[in-house]
Amino acid sequence: MRKKGKYSRSGLASIVTTAMMLTTIAIMGSGVVVWGKSNFSANEMVVASSTTTSVNRINENLAIEKIWFGINPQKFVNITMTNNGNIRLNVTQIQFSTSTTSNQFQFSNQAILPKKTGSIQIPYSYSDNIPINILITTSRGSILTTQASP
């Protein structure tokens, strides 16, 4: 004879509880797998982009051919550069600095094709016989430094 009472359905309750726990674990596991896959895909794109940028930066090879100073109609500096690399590069900034001043000039469309020469003329009120440090920055972050005196 079976006893009827408070604990008469305890076998069914443990089956239902186990089923609920398994369902919850399956749902959580699926969520973790989906999250991990999307997270991995995002990181994969970041690594690929970073690698491409680094390789392109290595392939940049900018050389300064000539720097000359002019005065007509106002003082200016002309910088002639050659792209010896095998990819196109963009000059985005040129900075002139002396012991007392620093001037930055931003550019948006100063592309130099591979194996080609480009020239940029910048209005700049230089002082005679004072050396100027010149920093040229490309769109990929490469920096070329030189010094010239008027």
Could you characterize the architecture of this molecule?
The chain has 150 residues and is of the alpha+beta class. The protein folds into 2 domains: 51 residues; 88 residues, Sandwich (Immunoglobulin-like). The protein contains 1 helix and 8 strands; from the N terminus they run H-E-E-E-E-E-E-E-E. The strands form 2 sheets. Strands 3, 4, 5, 7 and 8 form a 5-stranded antiparallel sheet that branches. Strands 1-2-6 form a 3-stranded antiparallel sheet, with no helix packed on it. Strand 3 and strand 4 form a beta hairpin. The relative contact order is 0.15.
Large-scale geometry: rod-shaped
Low-confidence stretches: none
- Alpha-beta content class: alpha+beta
Number of strands: 8
Just name the CATH architecture of the largest domain: Sandwich
Fourth-level CATH superfamily of the largest domain: Immunoglobulins
- H and E order: HEEEEEEEE
Mean pLDDT: 86
Please identify the oligomeric state: single chain
Terminal-residue CA separation: 113 Å
Count of helices? 1
Number of discrete domains: 2
Helix content: 25-40%
The name CATH uses for the topology of the largest domain is Immunoglobulin-like
Note the beta-strand portion. 35-45%
Radius of gyration: 33 Å
Biggest β-sheet strands, sense, barrel: 5 strands, antiparallel
User: Which CATH class of the largest domain is shown?
Assistant: Mainly Beta
